[in-house]
Amino acid sequence: MEKNLIDTSKAVNEFMAERGWQGRSCSACSKIFFFKPSSKMDTPICGWHKCDKGACIFRTFSKRKKILTPAQISEKMVEYFDSVGFRQIASRNIANFDGQTDLVIAGVQMFDDIIHRNQQIREDKMFVAQPCVRMQFQQQVESQEGTSTSFVNVCTEKMGANFDEHLHTIDHWCTILSKLGLHMSDFIVVMRTSINDWGTGKFSSLELFFSYGGLELGDASYLFIPQVNRASIPISDIGFGLERIAWAMNKTDSYFDMLIPWTSSGSREMFDSCRTLALLVLCGVQAANKGPGLQFRKFAKVLSEKYYGQDIYHILSYYFDYWSQFIKPSISRDSAIKIVQLEIERFINLKVSEMLKLPLPRDETTEAYFDRLVYNFNVNIYNLRKAIQECKM
Ligand SMILES: [Zn+2]
Questions:
Q1: What is the pLDDT of residues 222-232, one digit of tens each?
Q2: How far apart are CA 181 and CA 248, in angstroms?
Q3: How far apart, in whole angstroms, are the C-alpha atoms of residue 88 and residue 100?
Q4: Spacing, Cα 376 to ligand 1 middle (Å)
Q5: What pTM was estimated for this model as a whole?
Q6: Distance in Å, CA 25 to ligand 1 centroid
Q7: C-alpha–C-alpha distance, residues 260 and 272, integer Å
Q8: CA-to-CA distance for 299 and 122, rounded, in angstroms?
Q9: Residue 287 near residue 300 (C-beta atoms within 8 A)
């Protein structure tokens, strides 16, 4: 291990011990983790989902009296962090052009133009509730509880922070989590070092993962980002998943219970696809064959192939309103839904046209296409209705 990592992990050990945490090495993955002695988290295993097999025991912990929405929880965080000097800044558009990823995957990307375009370093203390998309979660949405391809990353960011400041900010996070009813004695904090490269060179970082009764809520990383023309930039980057915090607080059976319209039902994949698609379109992303638009197209394809005919446009507008709480829409809700509808129905129209050997569709809804087929081409109504049913299978 590098010398500065040894120093920082030593500082973490002292910091945790001062606050009554005990360190232990996980009997499954051998990582160091911290817990409060004689609490229910006093176990030989670190609580990482791969070590405890995703038990999510937090659902059995005592519940809050009143359920809160993610937006209400975020509001409480904004208020708290503001009182300790972290100013809230506006979230950025999900389509990212400065950094290494097509879509924003974490709040720390607010620094992408500084890290990748040599912009001036900013040292103010910031809080952001940043909507993010992580495509690698797509395969796990159905199989693993607590995952979604889009979520709000609530984070504090401080460029130029020294390690003490970083630890001090961790204290603030412990305070607000406790205030929200997530008590430290129900947490395990796992320490990990990792090697990263964000495109400006390799760097190692020390990370502390916060797991609440078996659910990973977020992590605190202290980073040293290499720069070509200047010294490496230290960053205190502490980020949590807002919807996971909401699940931990509300303790519903499923992560998605609070994240779908009350009157709807369906598969997690359907809701997740609508949710992420709504975020993309709200940010002005349109279907394309590469970049952010490719992800748009992939989700639209899933919806048209597997869920066409369900209440997807209603669900999409529900999520449009959800994301509007965290990011300024660059388009009206009606136009957003229309854009998604055209993309979803483009697949349907092509399929029907192929099935029945009909004139090719234009850039139009299925309703409009069928109108033309029936009134201009005298196509049999019953064949069209039957074809639509087959599309849904
Ligand atoms: Zn472990």
A1: 999 999 889 99
A2: 9
A3: 25
A4: 66
A5: 0.94
A6: 8
A7: 9
A8: 36
A9: yes
